[in-house]
Amino acid sequence: MNPPASEADPIQRWRSRAEPYWQATVLGFHRYASWLVSISWKRFIVLSILLMILAAITQSLPPFRWNVTETVEEPIGRPSVPAPPKPPRSPVIKIEKPKTGDKDPDGVDISIDQRGIRITPRAAPASAPASAASGGSAGAASAAAPAGVSITLPPGVDREAVREAVEAARDAIREVAEAKREAAADAEQAKAEAEQAAREAVEDARQAIEDAFPGPTRKVKKTRVVHWGDFLTDLALLWIVASAIVKATYKGRLQAEVKAAQATETAEAESLKRQVVEARMAAMQAQVEPHFLFNTLASIDHLIETDPKRASVMQKNLIALLRASMPTMREANASGVRDLGRELAVIRPYLEILKVRMEERLATEIDVPEGLFSAEFPPMMIQSLVENAIKHGLEPKPEGGTLKVKAEIVHGKLAVSVADTGLGFGKAATAGTGVGLANIRERLQLLYGNRATLAVAEHPPGGTVVTITVPYKSLEGASA
Questions:
Q1: What's the rounded Cα separation, in Å, for the pair 118 and 103?
Q2: Hey, how many other C-beta atoms are within 10 angstroms of the C-beta on 195?
Q3: For the residues of 77-144, what is the DSSP string, one character each?
């Protein structure tokens, strides 16, 4: 047993439910985009500024902003905790210059110069007893030159060895000094660590006291502002930028759609018009060809009894006419054009049949270079012009006349003319309504536009000349 469709295909069910919403969204977007395109850029800028102002005002109003009052407890006072003791200061050793007049007889003078360090006892004061002054010469000399510390080298000592000993002593002194400096640095670091540990201990003690003795508290009402509408300004700016992009791009799309619709309508109208013209030409052909065919067959039947030779010629020309026109008629209707050689293949037997019917009253001439047989030319136009020339120009004239078909290149275009020496355009009693020429003009307009023309003029010897001018183009595979 198959499960229900709603259970077997949940994706399809979801699509069917979401389809109306999607269509409504697309419809809303197209309506909004069409409205954006309909307004001017000046109005769009004014509306954008108003939207930004509205967003800035709205974000400070409820429900995007409100005040919240809360009751909290805060402490009134806590037991005081003594500050951590300051670390004892290290003793400071200062060497000060003795004050003026301060002469300590028991002191010493320390002098440092290029000769080394000298430590010399100070001399006795000037007010010494006279008995000291009256002493012996040795005692005076001793008082005048107080004893000091001096280092002398015994004779015979190698000075280089002494210098090396001094250098070694100097290096040892430097190492001792460096060790003292490192010991002092380690002592300073240990001191800093001890101070930090003391501070942390005091802070821990303070926190413990606060936890153990919370102290009195009081309830206080505090008001805080809650707002979550800050995104409105950013959202409005994003909306404005997106709308500007839609306005700039959607207009081009609408214009393209309008142009495409116009082109489609034009193409459909041209196609319909062409179909109408082809239908008219087919109707005319259906009317003309049977009439011409019946008349030709009647003439052949009459000539069989009176002039079998001429009847045979007319019959052969009729067969050539049917063979040239019928196989290519479907191709011409499909493409709209065919080569000039095929048109002449229809015109030649057609004129020969007319010459049999009109006898000496009709003379024909075809002046078309062989190189133009492959030129493109609309079908049935030359035949229509020849029929008009025979029917309205040469047949009504008692003595008949001459009909000439000519093709040539004029200013880069193919010009095909049909000239007769008949009564003249519109002078015969059998003059038509001009529908045939109007159909030819309409077909030329559909096929070539303004590049093709149909001209009707008087023939200088008398009669009418009709010229069709189309762009010259050679068709591949044209028949000679």
A1: 18
A2: 13
A3: -----PPPPPPPPPP-----PPPTT---TT-EEEEEETTEEEEEEPPPPTT--HHHHTS-HHHHHHHH
Nearest to 349 by CA among 395, 386, 378, 402: 386
Please state the separation of Cα 298 from the chain's center in Å.
76
Second CATH level (architecture) for the domain 307-471: 2-Layer Sandwich (3.30)
Which of the four pLDDT bands, split at 50, 70 and 90, describes residue 129?
very low
> Which has the higher per-residue pLDDT, 453 or 124?
453
Calpha distance 440→437 (Å, rounded): 5
Between the alpha carbon of residue 115 and those of residues 105, 111, 120, 151, 211, the distances in Å are: 25, 10, 14, 11, 70
Q: Are strands 401-410 and 362-367 parallel, antiparallel or unpaired?
A: parallel
Q: Is the pTM of this model over 0.70?
A: no
User: Which tokens hold the place of 333?
Assistant: 């209707």
CA distance 327 to 333: 11
Candidates 373, 382, 385, 380; CA nearest to 339 is 373
CB-based contacts of 206, cutoff 8 Å, min separation 6: 81
Report which of 59, 48, 57 is spatially closest to residue 231, judged by C-alpha positions: 59
Integer Cα distance of 270 and 447 in angstroms: 10
What DSSP string describes 221-238?
EEEEEEE--THHHHHHHH
Main-chain phi, psi angles of 471, to 5 degrees: -60, 140
CB-based contact 229:60 (threshold 8 Å)? yes
Q: Which residues pair with 118 in a beta bridge?
A: 111
Of 376, 380, 377, nearest to 282 by C-alpha is 380
H or E stretch at 459? none
CA distance 228 to 64: 6
H helix runs in 227-380, sequence order: 231-306, 308-335, 340-358
- Comparing 258-262, 430-434, 466-470, which segment has the lowest mean pLDDT? 430-434
For the four alpha carbons of 35, 40, 41 and 46, in that order, the dihedral sign comes to: negative
Do 397 and 423 contact (CB within 8 A), yes or no? yes
Distance CA 186, CA 168 (A): 27
Interval 143-151 mean pLDDT: 47
Write the CA distances from 86 to 82, 224, 378, 462, integer angstroms. 12, 42, 119, 140
Which helix (DSSP H) or strand (DSSP E) does residue 467 occupy?
strand 464-471
Q: Is the peptide bond before 63 cis (omega within 30 degrees of 0)?
A: yes
Q: Minimal CA–CA distance to 52: which of 248, 238, 228?
A: 238
